[in-house]
């Protein structure tokens, strides 16, 4: 159960990007966008012993909106616990995320370390690519969790 809440921190990872999706990809070689995300479906999968253990997983989907609340897309992710450090009270997760913005997708993947019981926090992971209007992009995604279900995301994308 604790893993569910800890990974919910990561879940917002596609949340803080304000996007005029097609214009964003075509303008500059480097660009920053913000969206808000709200988790709409989630499932915690507790493998092995009860409680957080390596291999436990968390899947979720979220709605993405512009800062003014306009729907701009959806996102989904699958995260796996890869390290539990009881002494430091942290869990490190590896998440694969995809945001569908209508005219293309942006993919991000990376490790994030989350402190037990914290439902807010900030972390940054690499943007690994995209499709459609976002083909050949890279960069980084910074996630600022507001609570267990809501995030502000900052995508810094650049064309390769």
TrEMBL record:
<feature type="domain" description="Allene oxide cyclase barrel-like">
    <location>
        <begin position="39"/>
        <end position="148"/>
    </location>
</feature>
<dbReference type="InterPro" id="IPR044859">
    <property type="entry name" value="Allene_oxi_cyc_Dirigent"/>
</dbReference>
<dbReference type="InterPro" id="IPR034871">
    <property type="entry name" value="Allene_oxi_cyc_sf"/>
</dbReference>
<dbReference type="Pfam" id="PF18678">
    <property type="entry name" value="AOC_like"/>
</dbReference>
<protein>
    <recommendedName>
        <fullName>Allene oxide cyclase barrel-like domain-containing protein</fullName>
    </recommendedName>
</protein>
<dbReference type="InterPro" id="IPR041013">
    <property type="entry name" value="AOC-like"/>
</dbReference>
């Amino acid at each position: 159960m604790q893993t569910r809440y800890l990974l919910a921190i990561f879940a917002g990872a596609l949340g803080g990007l304000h996007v005029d999706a097609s214009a964003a990809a075509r303008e500059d070689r480097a660009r920053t966008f913000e969206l808000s995300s709200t988790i709409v479906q989630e499932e915690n999968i507790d493998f092995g012993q009860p409680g957080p253990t390596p291999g436990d997983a968390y899947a979720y989907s979220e709605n993405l909106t512009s800062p003014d609340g306009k729907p701009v897309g959806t996102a989904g992710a699958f995260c796996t616990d890869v390290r539990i450090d009881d002494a430091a009270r942290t869990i490190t997760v590896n998440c694969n995320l995809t945001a569908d913005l209508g005219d293309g997708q942006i993919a991000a993947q990376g490790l994030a370390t989350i402190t037990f019981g914290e439902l807010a926090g900030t972390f940054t992971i690499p943007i690994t690519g995209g499709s459609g209007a976002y083909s050949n992009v890279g960069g980084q995604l910074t996630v600022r969790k507001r609570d267990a279900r809501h995030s502000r995301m900052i995508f810094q994308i650049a064309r390769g």
